[in-house]
User: Fold this.
Amino acid sequence: MIQAIGILTGGGDAPGLNAAIRAVTKSAFLHHRWQVVGIEQGYEGLMDPVQTEPLNAASVRGILPKGGTILHSSSRGDPYQWPEEDADGNRIYRDRHKEILRNADRLGLDGLICIGGDGTLSVAKRLSDEGLAVIGIPKTIDNDLPHTDYTFGFNTALTTATEALDKLHTTAESHDRGMVVEVMGRYAGWIALESAIAGGADVALIPEIPFEMEPVFDKIRSRMAGGRLFSLVVVGEGATPAGRKHIVQETSNETGCQERLGGIGEWVTNQLEEEFDVSTRCVVLGHLQRGGSPTAFDRILATRFGVKAVTALENGLSAHMVCARGKEITTVPLEEVTGNLKTIPPHGHMTVTAEKLGICLGRPLPA
Assistant:
């Protein structure tokens, strides 16, 4: 019989995290009378020294519309390969996952709900293999987790990007200039492509399609010939020129991350200014896409995920992720989720829709 569960948020923040925490807490505490333990700073909160706080209906009151996470989050690294420094200042990696298992037992946790993306859920799968009952909740603004139609956080990030395009459209038109907007998404182009469609962009460059600049130039020349002296170009941070590697800001940092994307927007801007005698500006939306109050869609999705996660534990499930499929919220084994990315099919419905609207994807239009 379950008496206590833990909940943590890992990886980058996303709008809707607090809605999910609230849903788990209220469902577990009010409906089942389970004790709910909030674990701070992701998996780090279950390592020595433990960082936890009790959660109840009162402690989650008023957090539904708030961005961020009251439990804080960390993308510092994998507890199975935790980055540290030795006495000489050299980077070393230490396996600390047994601290998590030991402290979960000391806290009397009968289950753990892990909210995060691929990295967080990969760790959750490994912990479940060691006997800890774990349910994952998919969270990422990138919308790149498979077996779920949507992850919460994506809709809010998409709305932010679309609103930015609406604002930039007016200034681009007023000054007859080009605007290049770099958006997040890592190796998936969902934010880039869908914001381009929603925001009426002229060009969308996404990671799934290595792009050539000549079709982009042709698109802008065509607009200029028709008297349209401004253009909006959306670039996903993981978009790559054909025959080149990803453009990155750095290849490693203190979190152990091997590749920090960024800079492709400026690269495209320079290409356009070299080709055309038109002022072009680059806007990098960056972490604006992660912040702010979640949309109604993300609040509802996160809430449904939270309630389903509690139900899954009640039903004895472990090593599963809750997911949205059509109108239903169901579950899928974590082993089918982790290590895989949901990306845009290069010739699927979304790309066909964009190209039939005249949006250039950095490749010749189909005959």
Q: What stands out?
A: The chain has nine helices and 15 strands. The longest strand covers residues 4-9.
